[in-house]
Amino acid sequence: MAVALSLPFADLGETQGLQLVVSETEAWLDLSGTKVTIQFDSGAMLHRRRGGQNELLGRAVGIKAGKCPAVFDATGGLGRDAFVLADLGCEVTLCEQAPVLHWLLQRALASASVSRHDSVREAAARMRLIAGNSENQSVPPASVIYLDPMFPERKKVAAVKKEAQALQAVSLSHDQGAGLWQWAWRQPVERIVVKRPLRAPLLGRETPSHSLSGRSVRYDVFVRSARSEGV
Known about the structure:
Blueprint: E1 18-22, E2 27-31, E3 34-36, H1 43-48, H2 53-61, E4 70-73, H3 80-87, E5 92-96, H4 99-112, H5 118-125, E6 127-131, E7 143-147, H6 158-170, H7 178-186, E8 191-197, E9 210-213, E10 217-223
Parallel strand pairs: 4-5, 4-7, 5-6, 7-8
Antiparallel strand pairs: 1-2, 2-3, 8-10, 9-10
Helix pairs in contact: 3-5
């Protein structure tokens, strides 16, 4: 696996910093003892299925009674929001360019497809994973583009900060979303949703049609009545 991902091989604890740990049954990122996993039927994810933030996310992408839009998640990451949207009924395409994260997402989807929970299997069946830079993709007009870019650190507990550090360490992009925003605005879609920390500045120069705010994050929603050609 180290060869396939072009990573150096070492026993756990032999090197400092971020490590991809692969056991017989699990794989995860380890950063100074903090374990970052992708597991869609974990206790935390099953608990989140009942959380109030799911309603905000669903409203942001335009889920209504009898309507679940297709979503292009341009910043796959750990896939949690993508899974929530799939669980809500959306067909979701995740694009992830970091080889390590793409590999972990592949494993997580394969595991979810045989989960003992019917809801997890059904959601996984609505998720499609592709590799590469989203900026090289074309998104169909009927889709909603979802962006959760690398943004300034959230002021949360240490474990969450370590998780964010791990994601930033394996990310191949360091523009904090500027390039993604320009790409998204060129696509012929009528809705773009950007997830931001509650008090973070807007991504890009456009003003959102509206925003939906939770306790720590907000969703800036850009609804365009007609296709935009400029940025």
